[in-house]
Amino acid sequence: MKKVKLLLAPGLEVEFADRDRALQQVQEWSERGTRFPIVVFGPEGCGKTAWLKQAAGILREKGYEVVYVDPMHREYLVHTDVKEVAEQFAKAAAEAVGMAELKLASLAIDAVKELLKAWRRKNVAVLVDEAFQAIGLERAAAYVKSLLNLIEYPPESYEKIVAIVATSEGVSRREIGRHLWAELAPMWNMSREGFERLYEQIPGPKPDVEEAWKLTGGNPRLLAQLYRAKWDVETVVAQLAKAKGITAGFAAKWRRWLEEAVEDPDALWSAEGEELASELEARNLIVYNLHDRSEKLWIDQPPPQKDPELGIGKHAAWQTPLHREAVRRALAEAR
What are phi and psi of 96, to 5 degrees? Predict the structure, then answer.
């Protein structure tokens, strides 16, 4: 299998690392198709995009006509001989900001219909990255239903369809989960072994891999942020606090529960803690209501049952240790 090249940071290209089991899952889907759209959710920057791009390559090698779309970044990959489809994506991506994102998300579904009409009895795959941010949460369930309709009521007969949507938003998971239109599958940050393989590809002076692991919890995007910040942890924590709206005022409002949650995120797993949990989940600070750790339920390897050092509990977890650190520092400022 040819590994795709990915831009980890400006001027730094790396080879896809880790996710061996997740790639095996793609191989299995390629053999039978997906009965329902697979909606993959997990921490921001955990590697969903890299996995989708590698999956696109695998499915193409398996003879699939493949469409990969990232509407928010106006990025797309079209592995097909139908030139008209590629031209449509190029035209949509050139639209004005705001319009392009919506058109690309919609075009992902329309393109599959065209491919089915052009290639009867052919295998087709559609991979959509962060579509819900582009179309809005209120349309998330309808979008998934449209993908399901492609599988159940195609415009032409087909052999197999693979449909995967990735999202970082916990609230979209709840919205989609109200219906029986998709299979929800969580993905966690990289395993220690895979993280080390990625870390080895980063040039220049850098901290010990153990320190990097304890800071990021295996999250490749935060690893890239640390690299861009020349390994200045203070800078990255400040960036996170600013992006997530983690202020002293926010910390003071929720002080009691936050103080407990930074020590053990499972403190939020109660009727009293649910309101704050919803707030933290909406800001993409935690993952709440974690699945059972059975590998059958996860894309790739699940997180440990509990890891206090990384901020992982049985029912809730900080997306990374640095997310937790940003909250901890806000609490200190609020005193």
Answer: -65, 155
The hierarchical CATH code for the domain 5-186 is 3.40.50
Q: Residue type for 300, please? A: D
What are 274-297's pLDDT values in tens digits?
Answer: 999 999 999 999 999 998 999 999
Q: Can you give the pLDDT at residue 93?
A: 86
Q: In this model, does residue 100 exceed pLDDT 90?
A: no
Report which of 252, 285, 4, 327 is spatially closest to residue 168, judged by C-alpha positions. 285
**What's the distance, Cα to Cα, between the start and end of the chain in Å?**
54
Where do you find CATH 3.40.50 in the chain? 5-186
Residue 161, token pair as written in the block: 């369809």
Place of tokens 């053990």: 264
The DSSP code for 51 is H
The continuous run of DSSP H or E covering 211 comes out as: helix 209-216
Q: Categorize the per-residue pLDDT at 97 as very low, low, confident or very high, splitting at 50, 70 and 90.
A: confident
Q: Which residues does 306 contact at the CB level (< 8 Å), separation at least 6?
A: 312, 313, 314
Cβ burial 216-251 (10 Å sphere, 16+ → b, else e): bbbbbbbbbbbbbeebeeeebbebbbeebebeeebb
Task: Indicate yes or no: pTM above 0.85.
Answer: yes
Is residue 48 a contact partner of residue 325, using CB atoms and an 8 Å limit?
A: no
What are the backbone angles phi and psi of residue 16, rounded to the nearest 5°? -50, 130
Residues in the chain: 335
